[in-house]
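PROTEIN ENTRY
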Amino acid sequence: MNELMAGAEPMSVPGGPAGALVLHGFTGSPDSMRGVATGLAAVGFTVELPRLPGHGTTVEDMLTTRWSDWSTAAEDAYLDLAGRCESVVVAGLSMGATLTLWLAGRHPQIAGIACVNPATRPQPPEVVAMIEAALDGGDETMAGIGSDIAKDGVVEVAYELTPLRPLLSLVDALDELQEDLSRISCPLLLLTSPQDHVVDPGDSDHLAAEVSGPVTRVSLEQSYHVATQDHDAGLVVSEIVAFARTVSEAPAP
């Protein structure tokens, strides 16, 4: 493994009996969710913000990773946290939110989930064909998707290139996710940027329509995809913290 990018360090904070697992997105790093993790830790949550396999170093390290690597890492982190805490909430951005949904479909005891601009819908056949054609042509990467941020001067700690084989594994996972969505019955906080240049905001509408549990929606009017580092970052943190405390019945500090 290559050296970590500055800001890509994972975060682990001991706290009270309520736990929070926080998950970053595809080609991103813990940096994008550090504000959320810090906000949860500040009110007493036991917090884990892992660095997903292949992320936060160089794109070469990510080329051989797949959805199974990221989902296994997320589930391992969840099980470890659940073994130490009375309740656990999970929050994620983009693919981190997809992983959050995958976990909620398998672990109904999760107290609540918060999804920021989640990827939830199967990709159109033409998108899959485009990725496969690029791979057939010998390309292993394409232009990066990081730093979709409206706020001037803010740069996400993310790769400048997108690895195609890992991306294809995420596309496959989105197909498989569909049967999980109706099984999700825990409370969902859904935060969506109407101006998102990475994930169609319609993915949030799809999610809200498919889950079985209560849904609270928040519109992030001033932010693009990486809303956790954009103009609405403070709103994202305050909404997730308030939601997490409510569903966890965590007392005020």
